[in-house]
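Structure tokens please, single chain.
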Amino acid sequence: MPNNAHLRLRSVLEILAEAASNGTRPDAREVISEALRRVPPTAYEQELLSGGVPRGFKNLTTATARLVKAGWMSKGRGGWAVTEDGLRAVAAFSSPSELAEALDAGIPLPDAPARAEDAKSAAAPEAPAQVAEAPAPVTDPKRPSGQPESVAVVGDFGVLLGADRDWDPAANAVQMSFDPADGLWLLDGELPAGRYAFKFALNGSWEENYGAYGLLDGANHEFQHDGGAVTIAYDHSSRDLAPASQLAPA
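Here you go.
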């Protein structure tokens, strides 16, 4: 199994261990998108398959069946979760290659039970001690820390929304507004009938942008529109299009 696959399967368990320690149960899309953010896909893996899903997203989703078969994670309607054996695996196998070898060879796990906090500590190396600093001030009380300074819907319809040109992350007409009530960035507009493509660009430039499935520098979001009002919503926790969006998929 390629090294990236090793890294991503371990990342899946780490993400689920972190979720367990926080008392949450993420869904498949959240887990796979986060794993691909931690281990970015290649250009080949970002290519969209016939169903509109990036190749890397589909391959990793398929690969997680190995974790289920090993009894290290579970999948259900309520989301994905790490098992007690999965927590022990994260703590016992300190590198992605060791974890992959354990999967391949069926290496037994240690008998001592593991807690979610232990697995979370094993998932991330301890940061070096630093002198405590005062937190940076939040300039906009409506935009909590952790959110970007700005988010733009950058696509082939910028001019239709009032921008001077399409695909301009700095254009005022395509900047989204942050809604503190639900933590989403929103843009409302009117578009004529047609097929459109876009990405989300942060902080007025292309330096950090997210496409389909919340992938950094990922493939464009695409949708077919019958004409009229559109609402595009961005969720920074997933770096992806939020369900509150009112778009017809392409």
